[in-house]
Design brief:
alpha/beta; Rossmann fold; eight-stranded mixed sheet; 22 strands; binds ligand PMT
Length: 403
Protein backbone atom coordinates (compact mmCIF):
# COMPACT_ATOMS: atom_id res chain seq x y z
CA UNK A 1 0.00 0.00 0.00
CA UNK A 2 2.84 2.39 0.77
CA UNK A 3 5.04 1.54 -2.22
CA UNK A 4 6.21 4.79 -3.92
CA UNK A 5 4.14 6.97 -1.60
CA UNK A 6 5.72 10.31 -0.67
CA UNK A 7 5.27 11.08 3.00
CA UNK A 8 6.07 14.50 4.42
CA UNK A 9 6.72 13.82 8.09
CA UNK A 10 6.53 16.76 10.50
CA UNK A 11 8.28 16.03 13.79
CA UNK A 12 7.22 18.32 16.61
CA UNK A 13 8.70 18.71 20.08
CA UNK A 14 7.67 15.77 22.20
CA UNK A 15 9.52 12.86 23.78
CA UNK A 16 7.67 10.57 21.35
CA UNK A 17 10.03 11.95 18.67
CA UNK A 18 12.32 9.13 19.79
CA UNK A 19 9.93 6.72 18.02
CA UNK A 20 10.41 8.55 14.73
CA UNK A 21 13.56 6.66 13.58
CA UNK A 22 11.62 3.37 13.83
CA UNK A 23 8.69 4.95 12.00
CA UNK A 24 10.93 6.13 9.15
CA UNK A 25 12.63 2.71 8.90
CA UNK A 26 9.32 0.90 8.68
CA UNK A 27 7.90 3.33 6.12
CA UNK A 28 10.98 2.88 3.95
CA UNK A 29 10.83 -0.93 4.36
CA UNK A 30 7.42 -0.67 2.70
CA UNK A 31 8.74 1.34 -0.23
CA UNK A 32 7.57 4.80 0.92
CA UNK A 33 9.82 7.83 0.59
CA UNK A 34 9.99 10.07 3.64
CA UNK A 35 10.96 13.74 3.84
CA UNK A 36 11.11 15.29 7.30
CA UNK A 37 10.41 18.74 8.64
CA UNK A 38 11.55 19.37 12.18
CA UNK A 39 10.14 22.06 14.47
CA UNK A 40 12.47 23.86 16.88
CA UNK A 41 10.92 21.82 19.70
CA UNK A 42 11.42 18.62 17.72
CA UNK A 43 15.11 19.40 17.33
CA UNK A 44 15.45 19.24 21.14
CA UNK A 45 14.65 15.52 20.91
CA UNK A 46 16.10 14.42 17.59
CA UNK A 47 18.62 15.94 15.20
CA UNK A 48 18.12 16.86 11.53
CA UNK A 49 21.16 14.71 10.76
CA UNK A 50 19.48 11.59 12.23
CA UNK A 51 16.32 12.26 10.22
CA UNK A 52 18.26 12.93 7.03
CA UNK A 53 20.41 9.81 7.44
CA UNK A 54 17.43 7.54 8.12
CA UNK A 55 15.15 8.99 5.46
CA UNK A 56 17.84 9.43 2.82
CA UNK A 57 16.42 12.92 2.19
CA UNK A 58 17.32 16.33 3.50
CA UNK A 59 15.55 17.21 6.76
CA UNK A 60 14.10 20.74 6.66
CA UNK A 61 13.81 23.06 9.59
CA UNK A 62 14.23 26.70 8.73
CA UNK A 63 11.53 28.73 6.97
CA UNK A 64 13.94 31.44 6.03
CA UNK A 65 16.93 29.30 5.03
CA UNK A 66 18.29 30.51 1.72
CA UNK A 67 19.60 27.06 0.81
CA UNK A 68 16.38 25.29 1.65
CA UNK A 69 14.30 27.89 -0.15
CA UNK A 70 16.48 27.89 -3.25
CA UNK A 71 16.60 24.08 -3.44
CA UNK A 72 13.00 23.49 -2.50
CA UNK A 73 10.45 26.09 -1.43
CA UNK A 74 8.02 25.35 1.40
CA UNK A 75 5.14 25.31 -1.05
CA UNK A 76 6.82 22.69 -3.18
CA UNK A 77 7.47 20.53 -0.11
CA UNK A 78 3.77 20.05 0.45
CA UNK A 79 2.83 19.92 -3.24
CA UNK A 80 5.21 17.04 -3.86
CA UNK A 81 3.95 14.95 -0.94
CA UNK A 82 1.09 12.46 -1.15
CA UNK A 83 0.27 12.97 2.50
CA UNK A 84 1.45 14.97 5.51
CA UNK A 85 1.95 13.10 8.76
CA UNK A 86 2.54 15.02 12.00
CA UNK A 87 4.14 12.67 14.53
CA UNK A 88 4.38 13.52 17.31
CA UNK A 89 1.74 16.27 17.13
CA UNK A 90 2.04 18.46 20.22
CA UNK A 91 -0.74 20.56 21.79
CA UNK A 92 1.09 23.60 20.42
CA UNK A 93 1.13 22.38 16.82
CA UNK A 94 -2.52 21.34 17.05
CA UNK A 95 -3.45 24.79 18.37
CA UNK A 96 -1.50 26.54 15.60
CA UNK A 97 -3.11 24.32 12.96
CA UNK A 98 -6.55 25.19 14.33
CA UNK A 99 -6.15 28.95 14.18
CA UNK A 100 -3.86 29.07 11.16
CA UNK A 101 -0.67 30.33 12.75
CA UNK A 102 2.28 29.93 10.40
CA UNK A 103 5.35 30.99 12.35
CA UNK A 104 7.81 28.28 11.31
CA UNK A 105 8.38 25.94 8.38
CA UNK A 106 6.19 23.12 9.76
CA UNK A 107 3.12 25.28 10.45
CA UNK A 108 3.58 27.24 7.20
CA UNK A 109 3.60 23.99 5.23
CA UNK A 110 0.50 22.80 7.11
CA UNK A 111 -1.33 26.04 6.29
CA UNK A 112 -0.24 25.97 2.65
CA UNK A 113 -1.12 22.30 2.28
CA UNK A 114 -3.64 20.91 -0.19
CA UNK A 115 -2.87 17.34 0.91
CA UNK A 116 -4.52 14.98 3.41
CA UNK A 117 -3.12 15.44 6.91
CA UNK A 118 -2.81 12.77 9.60
CA UNK A 119 -1.74 13.70 13.12
CA UNK A 120 -0.50 11.44 15.94
CA UNK A 121 -0.94 13.53 19.11
CA UNK A 122 1.42 13.08 22.03
CA UNK A 123 1.37 15.10 25.23
CA UNK A 124 0.74 15.11 28.97
CA UNK A 125 -2.70 13.82 29.96
CA UNK A 126 -3.85 17.18 31.39
CA UNK A 127 -2.79 18.97 28.20
CA UNK A 128 -4.68 16.37 26.14
CA UNK A 129 -7.87 16.56 28.20
CA UNK A 130 -7.75 20.38 28.51
CA UNK A 131 -10.86 21.91 26.88
CA UNK A 132 -8.61 24.00 24.62
CA UNK A 133 -6.95 20.92 23.13
CA UNK A 134 -10.21 19.01 22.89
CA UNK A 135 -11.89 21.94 21.11
CA UNK A 136 -8.94 22.19 18.72
CA UNK A 137 -9.18 18.45 18.12
CA UNK A 138 -12.84 18.69 17.18
CA UNK A 139 -12.13 21.63 14.84
CA UNK A 140 -9.32 19.69 13.14
CA UNK A 141 -11.58 16.66 12.73
CA UNK A 142 -14.26 18.76 11.05
CA UNK A 143 -11.56 19.81 8.57
CA UNK A 144 -10.94 16.12 7.84
CA UNK A 145 -7.62 15.93 9.61
CA UNK A 146 -7.28 12.24 10.56
CA UNK A 147 -6.24 11.61 14.14
CA UNK A 148 -4.41 8.45 15.32
CA UNK A 149 -4.42 7.84 19.06
CA UNK A 150 -3.24 8.92 21.49
CA UNK A 151 -2.98 5.73 23.55
CA UNK A 152 -3.27 5.32 27.29
CA UNK A 153 -0.46 4.35 29.62
CA UNK A 154 2.60 5.62 31.45
CA UNK A 155 3.59 9.02 30.11
CA UNK A 156 7.14 10.35 29.97
CA UNK A 157 6.21 13.00 32.55
CA UNK A 158 5.54 10.24 35.09
CA UNK A 159 1.75 10.59 34.98
CA UNK A 160 -0.62 7.94 33.69
CA UNK A 161 -3.44 8.45 31.20
CA UNK A 162 -4.22 9.38 27.60
CA UNK A 163 -1.40 11.09 25.72
CA UNK A 164 1.02 8.41 24.49
CA UNK A 165 1.71 8.70 20.78
CA UNK A 166 0.12 5.82 18.84
CA UNK A 167 2.37 2.83 18.20
CA UNK A 168 4.40 2.92 15.01
CA UNK A 169 2.51 -0.14 13.71
CA UNK A 170 -0.82 1.69 14.16
CA UNK A 171 0.48 4.75 12.32
CA UNK A 172 1.63 2.52 9.45
CA UNK A 173 -1.71 0.70 9.41
CA UNK A 174 -3.62 4.02 9.29
CA UNK A 175 -1.47 5.26 6.40
CA UNK A 176 -1.97 1.96 4.55
CA UNK A 177 -5.72 2.19 5.08
CA UNK A 178 -5.71 5.76 3.81
CA UNK A 179 -3.99 4.80 0.55
CA UNK A 180 -6.13 1.67 0.25
CA UNK A 181 -9.29 3.76 0.49
CA UNK A 182 -8.06 6.40 -1.92
CA UNK A 183 -7.18 3.65 -4.40
CA UNK A 184 -10.74 2.36 -4.39
CA UNK A 185 -11.49 -1.36 -4.23
CA UNK A 186 -8.78 -3.59 -2.86
CA UNK A 187 -7.25 -6.62 -4.55
CA UNK A 188 -9.25 -8.97 -2.30
CA UNK A 189 -12.60 -7.42 -3.16
CA UNK A 190 -15.14 -10.22 -3.49
CA UNK A 191 -13.07 -12.57 -1.29
CA UNK A 192 -14.52 -13.81 1.96
CA UNK A 193 -12.12 -14.43 4.85
CA UNK A 194 -12.66 -15.92 8.30
CA UNK A 195 -9.99 -15.17 10.91
CA UNK A 196 -9.80 -16.63 14.43
CA UNK A 197 -8.03 -14.67 17.14
CA UNK A 198 -7.33 -14.48 20.85
CA UNK A 199 -7.50 -17.09 23.58
CA UNK A 200 -10.46 -19.20 24.62
CA UNK A 201 -11.78 -19.40 28.17
CA UNK A 202 -12.67 -22.91 29.27
CA UNK A 203 -14.77 -22.76 32.43
CA UNK A 204 -13.88 -24.86 35.47
CA UNK A 205 -17.01 -23.68 37.28
CA UNK A 206 -19.14 -20.52 37.00
CA UNK A 207 -16.32 -18.30 38.33
CA UNK A 208 -13.05 -19.92 37.24
CA UNK A 209 -11.61 -20.80 33.87
CA UNK A 210 -8.52 -22.13 32.05
CA UNK A 211 -6.96 -19.88 29.43
CA UNK A 212 -3.62 -18.82 27.89
CA UNK A 213 -1.68 -15.60 27.35
CA UNK A 214 -2.93 -14.73 23.85
CA UNK A 215 -3.90 -11.06 23.52
CA UNK A 216 -5.52 -11.28 20.10
CA UNK A 217 -3.08 -8.69 18.70
CA UNK A 218 -1.79 -10.95 15.92
CA UNK A 219 -5.17 -12.29 14.84
CA UNK A 220 -6.84 -8.88 14.95
CA UNK A 221 -4.00 -7.36 12.91
CA UNK A 222 -4.50 -10.05 10.25
CA UNK A 223 -8.23 -9.32 10.11
CA UNK A 224 -7.42 -5.60 9.72
CA UNK A 225 -4.87 -6.23 6.96
CA UNK A 226 -7.23 -8.46 4.98
CA UNK A 227 -10.06 -5.93 5.34
CA UNK A 228 -7.70 -3.19 4.16
CA UNK A 229 -7.13 -5.24 1.01
CA UNK A 230 -10.89 -5.27 0.43
CA UNK A 231 -11.73 -8.78 1.74
CA UNK A 232 -15.03 -9.27 3.48
CA UNK A 233 -13.76 -10.43 6.87
CA UNK A 234 -15.46 -12.23 9.74
CA UNK A 235 -13.30 -12.18 12.85
CA UNK A 236 -14.17 -14.89 15.37
CA UNK A 237 -12.46 -13.91 18.58
CA UNK A 238 -12.06 -15.16 22.10
CA UNK A 239 -12.03 -12.66 24.98
CA UNK A 240 -9.51 -9.86 24.32
CA UNK A 241 -9.18 -6.18 25.05
CA UNK A 242 -8.18 -5.42 21.45
CA UNK A 243 -10.57 -3.00 19.71
CA UNK A 244 -12.73 -4.43 16.94
CA UNK A 245 -10.93 -3.90 13.63
CA UNK A 246 -12.64 -1.40 11.31
CA UNK A 247 -14.60 -2.85 8.44
CA UNK A 248 -14.88 -6.40 9.79
CA UNK A 249 -17.74 -8.43 11.22
CA UNK A 250 -16.76 -9.49 14.73
CA UNK A 251 -18.19 -12.56 16.48
CA UNK A 252 -17.25 -12.79 20.17
CA UNK A 253 -16.96 -16.22 21.76
CA UNK A 254 -15.63 -17.65 25.01
CA UNK A 255 -14.89 -21.33 24.50
CA UNK A 256 -13.32 -23.52 21.80
CA UNK A 257 -16.68 -25.18 21.19
CA UNK A 258 -18.29 -21.76 20.61
CA UNK A 259 -15.41 -20.73 18.33
CA UNK A 260 -15.87 -23.91 16.31
CA UNK A 261 -19.61 -23.25 15.94
CA UNK A 262 -19.07 -19.57 15.01
CA UNK A 263 -16.49 -20.50 12.36
CA UNK A 264 -18.89 -23.10 10.91
CA UNK A 265 -21.55 -20.39 10.67
CA UNK A 266 -19.15 -17.84 9.12
CA UNK A 267 -17.96 -20.28 6.46
CA UNK A 268 -17.97 -20.85 3.50
CA UNK A 269 -15.15 -18.48 2.67
CA UNK A 270 -12.24 -18.54 0.27
CA UNK A 271 -9.72 -17.87 3.05
CA UNK A 272 -9.47 -19.19 6.61
CA UNK A 273 -6.73 -17.95 8.94
CA UNK A 274 -6.57 -19.66 12.35
CA UNK A 275 -4.47 -17.39 14.56
CA UNK A 276 -6.38 -18.06 17.78
CA UNK A 277 -4.71 -19.84 20.66
CA UNK A 278 -7.54 -22.30 21.13
CA UNK A 279 -7.39 -24.28 24.35
CA UNK A 280 -6.71 -27.91 23.50
CA UNK A 281 -8.77 -29.08 26.46
CA UNK A 282 -11.89 -28.11 28.31
CA UNK A 283 -12.87 -29.20 31.80
CA UNK A 284 -15.03 -32.32 31.83
CA UNK A 285 -17.98 -32.78 34.16
CA UNK A 286 -18.69 -29.17 35.22
CA UNK A 287 -21.31 -28.98 37.90
CA UNK A 288 -22.63 -25.48 37.30
CA UNK A 289 -21.89 -24.62 40.95
CA UNK A 290 -18.76 -22.98 42.35
CA UNK A 291 -16.39 -25.70 43.57
CA UNK A 292 -16.02 -25.36 47.33
CA UNK A 293 -12.58 -25.19 48.87
CA UNK A 294 -12.19 -28.42 50.81
CA UNK A 295 -9.50 -30.36 52.55
CA UNK A 296 -8.18 -31.81 49.30
CA UNK A 297 -7.49 -29.83 46.13
CA UNK A 298 -9.88 -31.02 43.40
CA UNK A 299 -8.44 -32.95 40.44
CA UNK A 300 -9.56 -31.51 37.13
CA UNK A 301 -10.51 -33.98 34.43
CA UNK A 302 -9.88 -32.59 30.96
CA UNK A 303 -11.66 -33.43 27.72
CA UNK A 304 -10.21 -32.77 24.27
CA UNK A 305 -11.62 -29.75 22.43
CA UNK A 306 -12.56 -29.82 18.76
CA UNK A 307 -9.67 -28.85 16.48
CA UNK A 308 -11.06 -25.98 14.43
CA UNK A 309 -8.16 -25.76 12.00
CA UNK A 310 -8.06 -29.52 11.33
CA UNK A 311 -11.84 -29.71 10.97
CA UNK A 312 -12.16 -26.99 8.35
CA UNK A 313 -8.97 -28.01 6.51
CA UNK A 314 -10.33 -31.45 5.69
CA UNK A 315 -10.41 -31.92 1.93
CA UNK A 316 -13.92 -31.87 0.54
CA UNK A 317 -16.57 -29.56 -0.83
CA UNK A 318 -16.77 -26.22 0.94
CA UNK A 319 -13.15 -26.29 2.11
CA UNK A 320 -11.68 -22.76 1.93
CA UNK A 321 -9.29 -22.48 -1.03
CA UNK A 322 -6.53 -21.30 1.31
CA UNK A 323 -6.26 -22.41 4.94
CA UNK A 324 -3.56 -20.78 7.04
CA UNK A 325 -2.77 -22.09 10.51
CA UNK A 326 -0.28 -20.97 13.14
CA UNK A 327 2.13 -23.13 15.08
CA UNK A 328 3.08 -21.88 18.53
CA UNK A 329 6.08 -23.95 19.56
CA UNK A 330 8.63 -23.89 22.34
CA UNK A 331 11.07 -26.36 20.71
CA UNK A 332 11.97 -27.73 17.26
CA UNK A 333 9.98 -24.87 15.73
CA UNK A 334 10.32 -25.65 12.03
CA UNK A 335 10.08 -29.46 12.28
CA UNK A 336 7.02 -29.26 14.51
CA UNK A 337 5.44 -26.65 12.26
CA UNK A 338 5.97 -28.86 9.21
CA UNK A 339 4.45 -31.83 11.06
CA UNK A 340 1.50 -29.64 12.11
CA UNK A 341 0.95 -28.49 8.53
CA UNK A 342 0.78 -32.11 7.40
CA UNK A 343 -1.31 -33.44 10.28
CA UNK A 344 -3.83 -30.58 10.14
CA UNK A 345 -3.99 -30.56 6.33
CA UNK A 346 -3.62 -26.80 6.06
CA UNK A 347 -1.88 -25.02 3.18
CA UNK A 348 0.39 -22.66 5.10
CA UNK A 349 1.60 -22.60 8.66
CA UNK A 350 2.94 -19.46 10.29
CA UNK A 351 5.41 -20.77 12.87
CA UNK A 352 6.31 -18.69 15.89
CA UNK A 353 8.51 -19.43 18.87
CA UNK A 354 6.55 -18.88 22.06
CA UNK A 355 9.13 -20.11 24.54
CA UNK A 356 9.71 -18.17 27.77
CA UNK A 357 11.35 -14.82 27.03
CA UNK A 358 10.12 -14.59 23.43
CA UNK A 359 7.19 -12.29 24.48
CA UNK A 360 5.21 -13.36 21.41
CA UNK A 361 2.12 -13.97 23.50
CA UNK A 362 0.78 -10.49 24.29
CA UNK A 363 3.85 -8.63 22.96
CA UNK A 364 3.78 -6.21 20.01
CA UNK A 365 6.25 -8.00 17.74
CA UNK A 366 6.65 -11.46 16.30
CA UNK A 367 9.36 -13.44 14.53
CA UNK A 368 7.71 -15.90 12.17
CA UNK A 369 8.54 -18.52 9.55
CA UNK A 370 6.12 -19.16 6.72
CA UNK A 371 5.93 -22.90 6.06
CA UNK A 372 4.32 -23.87 2.75
CA UNK A 373 4.51 -26.77 0.29
CA UNK A 374 7.39 -24.87 -1.37
CA UNK A 375 9.57 -24.64 1.74
CA UNK A 376 10.25 -22.37 4.69
CA UNK A 377 10.68 -18.59 4.60
CA UNK A 378 12.08 -16.93 7.71
CA UNK A 379 10.98 -13.34 8.19
CA UNK A 380 12.77 -10.76 10.35
CA UNK A 381 11.30 -9.68 13.68
CA UNK A 382 8.50 -7.23 12.89
CA UNK A 383 5.56 -5.61 14.63
CA UNK A 384 2.48 -7.82 14.61
CA UNK A 385 0.83 -5.35 12.20
CA UNK A 386 3.77 -5.70 9.81
CA UNK A 387 3.61 -9.51 10.06
CA UNK A 388 -0.12 -9.30 9.34
CA UNK A 389 0.43 -7.04 6.35
CA UNK A 390 3.02 -9.45 4.92
CA UNK A 391 0.71 -12.41 5.37
CA UNK A 392 -2.08 -10.44 3.70
CA UNK A 393 0.23 -9.49 0.82
CA UNK A 394 1.03 -13.20 0.33
CA UNK A 395 -2.67 -13.98 0.39
CA UNK A 396 -3.23 -11.34 -2.32
CA UNK A 397 -0.58 -13.04 -4.48
CA UNK A 398 -2.24 -16.41 -3.87
CA UNK A 399 -5.66 -14.96 -4.69
CA UNK A 400 -4.40 -13.41 -7.94
CA UNK A 401 -3.31 -16.87 -9.11
CA UNK A 402 -5.96 -19.11 -7.64
CA UNK A 403 -9.22 -17.27 -6.95
O1 LIG B 1 -2.68 -13.24 20.46
P1 LIG B 1 -1.25 -12.72 20.55
O2 LIG B 1 -0.87 -12.30 21.95
O3 LIG B 1 -1.00 -11.64 19.53
O4 LIG B 1 -0.25 -13.92 20.21
C1 LIG B 1 -0.23 -14.47 18.94
C2 LIG B 1 -0.24 -16.01 18.99
C3 LIG B 1 1.03 -16.48 19.64
C4 LIG B 1 -1.46 -16.52 19.76
C5 LIG B 1 -0.35 -16.50 17.50
O5 LIG B 1 0.72 -15.94 16.78
C6 LIG B 1 -0.32 -18.03 17.42
O6 LIG B 1 0.72 -18.67 17.41
N1 LIG B 1 -1.55 -18.63 17.36
C7 LIG B 1 -1.71 -20.08 17.45
C8 LIG B 1 -1.58 -20.54 18.87
C9 LIG B 1 -1.82 -22.03 18.99
O7 LIG B 1 -2.81 -22.43 19.57
O8 LIG B 1 -0.94 -22.78 18.37
P2 LIG B 1 -1.00 -24.38 18.32
O9 LIG B 1 0.32 -24.74 17.77
O10 LIG B 1 -1.40 -24.94 19.63
O11 LIG B 1 -2.15 -24.68 17.28
C10 LIG B 1 -1.91 -24.89 15.90
C11 LIG B 1 -3.02 -24.34 15.08
O12 LIG B 1 -4.23 -25.04 15.32
C12 LIG B 1 -3.33 -22.86 15.30
O13 LIG B 1 -3.63 -22.31 14.04
C13 LIG B 1 -4.57 -22.89 16.18
O14 LIG B 1 -5.41 -21.76 15.94
C14 LIG B 1 -5.26 -24.15 15.68
N2 LIG B 1 -6.08 -24.84 16.70
C15 LIG B 1 -5.50 -25.39 17.80
C16 LIG B 1 -6.28 -26.11 18.68
C17 LIG B 1 -7.68 -26.23 18.44
N3 LIG B 1 -8.43 -26.88 19.27
N4 LIG B 1 -8.20 -25.65 17.36
C18 LIG B 1 -7.44 -24.97 16.48
O15 LIG B 1 -7.94 -24.43 15.48
Amino acid sequence: MLENKKILLIVAGGIAAVKVPDLIRRLRERGASVTCILTNGGSQFITPLTLASLSGNMAYQDLFSLTEESEMGHIRLCREADIILVAPATADVMAKMTVGIADDLATTVLLASDKPVIIAPSMNVMMWTHPATQTNLQTLKTREVQVIGPGTGDLACGEIGDGRMAEVSDIIATLSRHFQKSRGDGPLKGCRAVVTSGPTHEPIDPVRYITNRSSGKQGHAIATALANFGASVTLVTGPTSEPNPDGTKVVNVQTAAQMMKACGEALPAEILVCAAAVADWSVAGQTGQKIKKGVKAPALKLAENPDILATFSKPGPGRPTLVVGFAAETENLITNAQLKRASKNCDWIVANDVSVGSSVFSGDSNTVHLVTADGVESWPTMSKSAVAERIAERIVKFANKNL
